[in-house]
Amino acid sequence: MDQKTCKCQSCKQNFTIEPDDFEFYQKIDLPSPTMCPVCRFKYLLAFWVFGRFRITKSALSGKTIITVIPESAPFPIYERSEFVSDAWDPLTYGRDYDSTRSFIEQLVELQSVVPHPHQCGIKNTNSEWADDVWESKDAYLTRSALYLDSVSYGYRVINCKNCIDITYSFDLERSYDCLFCFKSYNLNYSFNCRDCMDSYFLYDCRNCQNCFMSWNLRNQKYCILNQQYSKEDYFEKIKEYNLDSRSSIEALKKEMWQHIQKDAVNRQDYNLQAVQSTGNFLTNDKNCHVCYFTEESENCRYIFRGFKSKETIDSVGALECEKSALGIQDQVSYNNLCNLYTTNCRYSAYLDNCEETEYCFGCVGLRKQKYCILNKQYSKEEYEGLVEKIKKDMKERGEWGKLLPLSAAYCGYNLSLAQMMYPMTKDEVVEFGAKWEETVEPKYENIINGDDLPDTIGKVSDDITKQRILCPETKLSYNITKEELAFYREHNIPLPRRHFDWRTLDRFKPFSLMITPQKGTCYYCKKEIEHYYSPELGFQKIACLECYQREVA
Fold first, then answer.
1. C-beta of residue 297 within 8 angstroms of C-beta of residue 288
2. Is the pTM of this model over 0.90?
3. Helices 380-397 and 103-111, packing angle to 10 deg
4. pLDDT of residue 190
5. What DSSP string describes 467-497?
6. What's the burial of 3, exposed, middle or buried (CB within 10 Å: 0-12/13-18/19+)?
7. For residue 361, what is the DSSP state?
8. Are the beta carbons of 328 and 338 closer than 8 angstroms?
9. Are strands 221-224 and 227-228 parallel, antiparallel or unpaired?
10. How does strand 161-173 pair with strand 149-152?
């Protein structure tokens, strides 16, 4: 089919459906989308919980558990090991399909009564305060992580050790307050750096050591504000910056951001070895169109956070997915459609929190099952016949290829990844059709305001670990652990004054302004380019790839 311009049923803006899109949808028997790519991402991400950690009890055993699923979720919550045990049978919730009613409505009813696990992730040690964390040790208030050792307040981090406040960073050690940094040691207050060590306030630096407040450096040592110093002079000069003072750190952060805006050369995108691909934050991808935060994937379209996926479309959290569509954390999947929080499933559609299943349709909480519909077991022949009837009925009602309603999300939009990437007000969320989560902060005694914390770590006593701290921004409280205090003292870092979720969201904020294509001109050669820097960022030197390589590399 030819390119087609449509009006988004949500935001009412025009969007384009490309010929390759039509081919993709036809191949997997899906209708073309009725929402623009941005609204589709919002919708999908609204199902991905980024909620507040809370203490509750397992509905099965009464065991104390820590979860990010809010109290408003209608279904029972089981401790993860109980959820995958033989202590209960998901098939006991099975029900017959009623052809006179919407299938999605029947699935939502099933979803609301079948137990769900309290967190994602397996093979962890001492990581109760974590979610979507895998094969890690001593992960604390951390989300979306793999292979960690002693990491606190991390988000989307892999293979990191002894770090605090790091976001979307891989292979870091003894580092603090970093965003999009890789293979570095003792790197602090830095953004978009690789192979650096013993450095502070760096932006877009590679293979640098003992550098401070610098940008676009390559293979350098002992630089301050991009100026070369001798080793002795460098360390003497660093003392002048009072890195143990919070007020000094905050001033340095503002100064560094001004240098990024005015002095740094900003490449038109953050892609690395992305062949015939569009989007941003792509690494080792091929033929990926309108994809973001995606690595080692091929022939994918409209993916937000993907890894090693192929021929997958309109999905978020696509980990090793192939020939799948409309997935939300549909991981290690093949030929799936409209799945939510599933792992190792194949040839299935409309699953919620299922594992190692195949040929299942509209099921919740299944493990190692086959030929089930609405959690009821069928023979192969019965299953195939009924699925065809359900698909026919869904197509006639116009619900085939539609996701669950936003009311079926585990949490409100404001406690989801959608709010992180596409923030909206409560009124905007309601107009979008999602729900807003009202939360109540518990009342604590012996609480102190974050603004009243000592300016330097040297003035902090051990008693701080026994107090609650009130975040002036969010009005949420938090605490300082003994391990955290030891880290700050070792690295001479002042105590944080803001809630850890606020710190993660604030650190991540630039990324929410780098996911919309912008038309512009290269600062150097003046040719027209497409880049991903919102005008709100205020970046002045945006360069095409060729000019960036000439000016920086």
1. yes
2. yes
3. 110
4. 98
5. SEEE-TTT--EE---HHHHHHHHHHTPPPP-
6. exposed
7. E
8. no
9. antiparallel
10. parallel
